[in-house]
Amino acid sequence: MKNTIFTGAAVAITTPFNLDGSIDYEGLGKNIDYQIENGTDAIVICGTTGESSTMSDEEHRECIRFAVEHTNHRIPVIAGTGSNDTRYAIELSVEAQNLGADGLLLVTPYYNKTTQKGLIDHFTIIANSVNIPIILYNIPGRTGMNIAVETLELLAHHKNIAAVKEASGNISYTAQVAAACGDLIDIYSGNDDMIVPIMSLGGKGVISVLSNILPKETHEICQLCLDNNFQKAGELQIKYLDLINSLFCEVNPIPVKEAMNQLGMPAGACRMPLTKMSAENVARLLASMQRVGMPVPVVE
Predict the structure, then answer these.
(1) Which of 63, 152, 255, 263 is least enclosed by beta carbons within 10 angstroms?
(2) Could you tell me the pTM of the whole model?
(3) Is 202 left (phi over 0), alpha (psi -120 to 50) or beta?
(4) Antiparallel, parallel or unpaired: β 8-12 and 77-80
(5) Residue 298 confidence (pLDDT)
(6) Backbone angles phi, psi at 163, to 5 degrees
(7) Is residue 109 a contact partner of residue 139, using CB atoms and an 8 Å limit?
(8) What residues form DSSP beta bridges with 44?
(9) What is the sign of the dihedral through the CA atoms of 176, 183, 185 and 127?
(10) What is the pLDDT, as a whole number, of residue 299?
C-alpha cells in the first residue's frame, strides 16, 4: 500500500482577495493558522474553492509558495496543479514539488476533455515528472468527463498516484472504485454531504468546503468514521446537512466566502465571472448557520 497523504479533513481553502482584487496574503495566513489551530488535517491550496481558474500563473505559484512556507510542515499542503494543458500541468506540478508541496491535486482536463486513453496518458506523464504523491480529482459536473473505474484501476498502479478525490456524487461509482482498486489507492470524498457514506466504504477522509467555517466539526465527523463510530458520525453528517446544502445553493465558492465574510474571516469577494450572492440565498445561508449555532446576524 502507498503512503497515505493525510487522513481526516483537508480544507479546500478559499483565496481571500483585497478590495482591489489582489490576493490578501495576510488574510490567507490567518485562515491557514485558524485551520491548523482547529484540527484540520491538511491544506489544499489553489483548488476549485481557491478560485485557481482565475489566477494568473504568477499568482498560482505564489499562493503555493506562501501556503507551504506559512504552514511550515505543521500539516501537509496539497497544491492544485491540474490543467487541461498537459504541458502546463507538468510545469506547475514540478514547480509545486520544488516549492515543497507535500502532494498534488490534479483535476481531469476540462473543455477540450479527452478519451479515457488520453486521461491515462495525461495523468501518467504528469506523475512521471514528479516524486510526490498525487490525488486525482474526479468532478464530472464541472469538467464534463468522468474517470472510468477501469482507468482509475490502471492509474492506481503508478507509484506516485496515491488517491482520488471523488466528487461525482455517485456512491455506486465510489463502491466500484473501492472494489476495483482496494489498497492501491486512497479515496477522499469531494462532497461534504457524502463524507460518512464514502468513509463507510473505506475512504480516508474529505477535501472539504465546510471546513473553511467549521474545521473542528468536519474533522470530528472524519475522526469518528476512522474510529468506526459511524452512528455518531452519521448524526453529525445529518446535523450539518442543511448548512452543507446552503453552501452549495450557488456556485462554489460564492456561498462559503459569504459565510466567511459574515463571520468576520478574511475572504472578500469572488473574482468574476462569479458574482455577489443573491439576497434570498444570503438569508437562506444565514438561517442555516444560525440553526447550528454559528454567530451570525439574526434573520427575521
Answers:
(1) 263
(2) 0.96
(3) left
(4) unpaired
(5) 60
(6) -160, 170
(7) no
(8) 12, 78
(9) negative
(10) 57
137 counts as catalytic: yes
Residue ranges of the chain whose pLDDT lies below 50: none
CA distance 186 to 135: 9
Residue 40 carries which DSSP code? Answer: -
With beta carbons less than 8 A apart as the criterion, state whether 42 and 66 touch: no
Which whole-number Å values give the CA distances from 282 to 33, 213, 248, 277, 289, in the listed order?
Answer: 27, 15, 12, 6, 10
Q: Residue 3: its pLDDT value, please?
A: 86
Chain-centroid distance, C-alpha 142: 14
Homologous superfamily of 8-227:
Aldolase class I (3.20.20.70)
User: Cα(38)–Cα(143) distance, rounded to whole angstroms?
Assistant: 32
86-99 and 116-128 helices, crossing angle to 10°? 30
First to last CA, the chain: 53
Residue 147's pLDDT is what? 98
Residue type at 219? Answer: H
* CA dist., res. 134 & res. 145, Å (int): 19
| Of 137, 173, 188, 240, catalytic | 137
Of 25, 88, 111, 165, catalytic: 165
- Burial (CB < 10 A; 0-12, 13-18, 19+), residue 37, is exposed
Q: What are phi and psi of 187, to 5 degrees?
A: -120, 130
What amino acid occupies position 287?
A: A
Contacts with 27 (C-beta within 8 Å, 6 or more apart), sequence order: 16, 266, 267, 268
C-alpha cell, 99: 516549492
From residue 180, give the alpha-carbon distance in Å to each of 121, 152, 174, 175, 196.
20, 9, 10, 9, 20
Q: What is the pLDDT of residue 300?
A: 54
Residue type, 42: A
